[in-house]
Structures are given as C-alpha cells and as structure tokens.
Amino acid sequence: MWILLEYGAWAISAGILLWMLADAARVNREFDEDTLLSSLEGIDELLEHGDVPEAKEH
Q1: Domain ranges of the chain
Q2: For residues 55 and 47, what is the distance between their CA atoms, to the nearest angstrom?
Q3: What is the largest CA-CA distance in the chain?
Q4: For residue range 45-57, what is the model confidence (pLDDT) as tens digits?
Q5: Cut 0.90: pTM above it
Q6: CA dihedral 58, 48, 37, 35 (to 10 degrees)
Q7: How far is CA 31 from the centre of its chain?
Q8: Which residues lie below 8 Å from residue 50, measured CB to CB, with a gap of 6+?
Q9: DSSP characters for the chain?
Q10: Alpha-carbon gap, residue 36 to 24, rounded angstroms
Q11: Which end of the chain is less enclosed by CB atoms within 10 A, N or C?
C-alpha cells in the first residue's frame, strides 16, 4: 500500500516538474527578456502616476 502511495507521489512530482518546464518554455517564447526583467508593471507604474493611495501625501 505504501509503495503505491510513494510511486504516486513521485508521479505527481514528475508531472509538476514537466508542467513547470513547459510553462517556462512557453513564457520564454511569448516574452522577450527585457519584458521579463522589467519592473515597469504593477506597483511601480502606479507610483509613477500617483494612483496608489499610500503614495499620496495627506
């Protein structure tokens, strides 16, 4: 019984590894390195425009 659970855990682990590698390859194909290393999206962009409430002075 425990052997089957162990093999199942290894199979799930291998599946997750393959999924991560496939996702990394897909992201690498879809985006260039400048976009992936850029910090212009998200909170940095909001701070530039003053749209974040914590960034505004009271």
Answers
A1: 2-55
A2: 6
A3: 64
A4: 556 666 555 544 5
A5: no
A6: 140
A7: 13
A8: 56
A9: -HHHHHHHHHHHHHHHHHHHHHHHHHHHHHS-HHHHH---STHHHHHHHT-SGGGS--
A10: 12
A11: C
